[in-house]
Design goal:
Layout lengths: L5 H13 L7 H5 L7 E7 L7 E7 L13 E8 L2 E2 L3 E4 L1 E6 L7 E9 L7 E8 L2 E2 L3 E4 L11 E5 L2 E2 L6 H9 L5 E4 L3 E2 L4 H13 L1 H4 L4 E3 L7 H10 L11 E5 L2 E5 L13 H17 L2 H6 L2 E5 L20 H4 L10 H6 L4 E4 L5 E4 L2 E2 L2 E2 L17 E5 L19 E5 L3 E7 L4 E8 L5 E9 L9
Parallel strand pairs: 11-13, 12-14, 13-15, 17-18, 18-19, 19-23
Antiparallel strand pairs: 1-2, 2-7, 3-4, 3-5, 3-8, 6-7, 8-9, 8-10, 11-25, 16-17, 20-23, 20-24, 21-22, 25-26, 26-27
C-alpha cells in the first residue's frame, strides 16, 4: 500500500482548521449523558427500626431538571422470592461540585423509606424516568425491641486500591451474615483525588455491600480536603450533622459515632468541636439513664483516631497526651476519655492505624481488668475496652508496631482484615478479628461480659 508523504498527511490533519471547521471533543461529538443511577448505598434513618435512607448518584441531569430533579425509589416486600415493587417513595437531588480544578459535578439523590415492617426482606430499585438502577434488596431489623442479636462488620482505612477485605465482605454480605457495616473513617484514598474520580470508583466498589446493608460511617483524616466536602455530600447518616456525629440503637446496643477530626483540623473553626462535645455529653447522659440502660445496656462509641496505640510511628495515639483523650494541650478542655468513664461506655472502636490492636480495659494508662476472676479480664471490667481496626487495606500498606509492646496492649497484628461483632444479649458481646492474609482465619476473639452497666465512677 502506498504511504502518504508526511507533509501531505500533516496538511490533511490540519484541513478542518484551514477550512474554518470547529473541532469538538469526542464526548461532545457523541453527546454523552450520564443519567443512570450508580453508587447506590443504604443507611439507617432517624428510626432504626422502621426507616432506611437510599442514596445514589447520577453524573448529570437534563438542564430543565437540575432544580427539583426526580429522585424515586420503588420497593416492596419479597413475596415467594419475587420482587413486587408496589410502593414508591420520593426524595430530592443535590448538586455537588468537587473542589478540584475541574469542578467535577454530580447529583446526589436521597430518598427515605418509612414505616417499614420489621423482620422483612424488601426489594428496591432507584432512579426516575431517565433510568433505573438494578434491583437490590435489604432486610429490616427483626424487632423494634432490644431483644435480638445484631451482627456487624467493622473496619476502617479501606481504599480504592489494595482493598484487601472487600471481596470477603462482599461474599459475607451476600450470605446474609451481617445486619450493618461500620466503616470507621478513611475512604478511597482519597475521595477527592483526581477530581473525585477515585471517590466515585470507591463508591461503585462498595455498592455490592452498601446497597444491601446500612453502611454507617464517620470521617477520617483522608476526607479532610475542601472541608470534608466529598464525605459530607456522599453519605446520609442520621442526626442532621452532615454525617459528622450521630447515634443509633440496634438490638441491645446504643452506637455513638463521632468525628475525631474536629480536634485536628481547627482551621475549619472551633464550633464543630464544641458542638460535638456538648452533643456527646448529652447523648451519653441520656443513654445512661437507668431506664435506657436497662433497655439497651451496651454503649459502643466509634471514631477514626485512637486514644491509644502501640504502633511505631509519630501518630498522635503514640503520645501520652492524645488530643481526643485529654483535650486541648495544657488546659485539657474537651477531652473524651473522662466522658467515656463517667457514662460507662463499654467499648471504643477506632481505626487510623493500618493494623489491629485489642487493649486490656484501660483508663488514663491504667489497666483496669475485671476483678471477679484473674483469668477473666473482660468480665465486669472497670474501664472501657479499646479496639483499633484499621487494616481493611489501602495503598499506604501496613503499620509497624514497637519493638516493646506496652503492658496495656493485649493483642496486635499487622494482618489485613476486619472485625466482627455480635451482640448476643444484654450481658455478652463477642468480637472476632478476621485475617485476609490467612484466608479468613480468626486470629483473635474475646467475650466482653457484664453483669451490670453504668458509670465506672461507681
Amino acid at each position: 500500500m502506498q504511504r502518504l508523504h508526511f507533509p501531505l498527511l500533516a496538511s490533511l490533519l490540519l484541513l478542518p482548521g484551514i477550512l474554518g471547521l470547529s473541532q469538538v471533543s469526542a464526548e461532545e461529538e457523541v453527546n454523552i449523558v450520564h443519567y443512570q443511577p450508580e453508587q447506590v448505598h443504604l443507611a439507617f434513618g432517624e428510626h432504626t427500626d422502621s426507616e432506611i435512607v437510599v442514596t445514589w448518584s447520577t453524573r448529570s441531569l437534563p438542564p430543565d431538571q437540575e432544580v427539583g430533579a426526580p429522585s424515586v425509589v420503588e420497593y416492596g416486600q419479597l413475596v415467594a422470592g419475587q420482587a413486587r415493587l408496589t410502593q414508591q417513595a420520593s426524595g430530592s437531588a443535590t448538586k455537588f461540585v468537587d473542589g478540584g480544578h475541574k469542578q467535577a459535578t454530580q447529583f446526589i439523590h436521597r430518598v427515605t423509606l418509612r414505616d417499614l415492617e420489621p423482620n422483612a426482606t424488601y426489594a428496591y430499585h432507584c432512579g426516575s424516568a431517565l433510568g433505573w438502577s438494578a434491583i437490590f434488596q435489604f432486610r429490616t431489623v427483626p424487632s423494634e425491641s432490644s431483644d435480638w442479636s445484631p451482627s456487624l462488620a467493622i473496619y476502617g482505612d479501606m481504599g480504592n486500591e489494595n482493598a484487601q477485605s472487600l471481596a470477603r465482605l462482599q461474599e459475607e454480605t451476600q450470605r446474609g451474615m451481617y445486619d450493618a457495616i461500620i466503616h470507621v473513617g478513611d475512604f478511597a484514598y482519597d475521595m477527592n483525588s483526581h477530581n473525585a474520580r477515585v471517590g466515585d470508583e470507591f463508591m461503585r466498589q462498595i455498592e455490592t455491600v452498601a446497597a444491601y446493608l446500612p453502611y454507617m460511617v464517620v470521617p477520617g483524616n483522608h476526607e479532610e480536603k475542601f472541608n470534608f466536602s466529598n464525605y459530607r455530600a456522599r453519605f446520609s447518616m442520621p442526626g442532621g450533622t452532615e454525617n459528622l456525629f450521630y447515634s443509633f440503637d440496634l438490638g441491645p446496643v446504643h452506637f455513638v459515632a463521632i468525628s475525631t477530626e474536629v480536634y485536628y483540623f481547627l482551621n475549619y473553626g472551633l464550633k464543630p468541636l464544641v458542638f460535638q462535645f456538648d452533643w456527646l455529653r448529652e447523648d451519653l447522659a441520656k443513654a445512661n439513664l437507668p431506664a435506657n440502660r436497662a433497655k439497651r445496656p451496651w454503649i459502643i462509641i466509634y471514631g477514626h483516631r485512637p486514644m491509644y496505640c502501640s504502633n511505631e510511628n509519630d501518630n498522635d495515639c503514640t503520645h501520652s497526651e492524645t488530643l481526643t483523650r485529654v483535650g486541648w494541650p495544657f488546659v485539657h478542655m474537651f477531652g473524651l476519655e473522662p466522658l467515656l468513664y463517667e457514662f460507662g461506655v463499654d467499648v471504643a472502636i477506632w481505626a487510623h492505624e493500618h493494623s489491629y490492636e485489642r487493649l486490656w480495659p484501660i483508663y488514663d494508662y491504667e489497666v483496669r481488668n475485671g476483678t471477679l476472676k484473674k483469668d477473666s479480664p473482660y468480665e465486669d471490667p472497670r474501664a472501657p475496652v479499646h479496639i483499633v481496626t484499621g487494616s481493611a487495606g489501602c495503598k499506604e500498606g501496613r503499620e509497624p508496631f514497637k519493638g516493646k509492646i506496652p503492658e496495656w496492649s493485649a493483642f496486635h497484628s499487622q494482618d489485613y482484615g476486619y472485625t466482627r461483632l455480635k451482640a448476643h444479649n444484654r450481658t455478652h458481646l463477642h468480637f472476632e478479628q478476621v485475617s485476609d492474609d490467612q484466608n479468613g482465619a480468626i486470629i483473635d476473639e474475646f467475650w466482653l461480659v457484664k453483669s451490670k452497666h453504668g458509670s465506672y465512677q461507681n
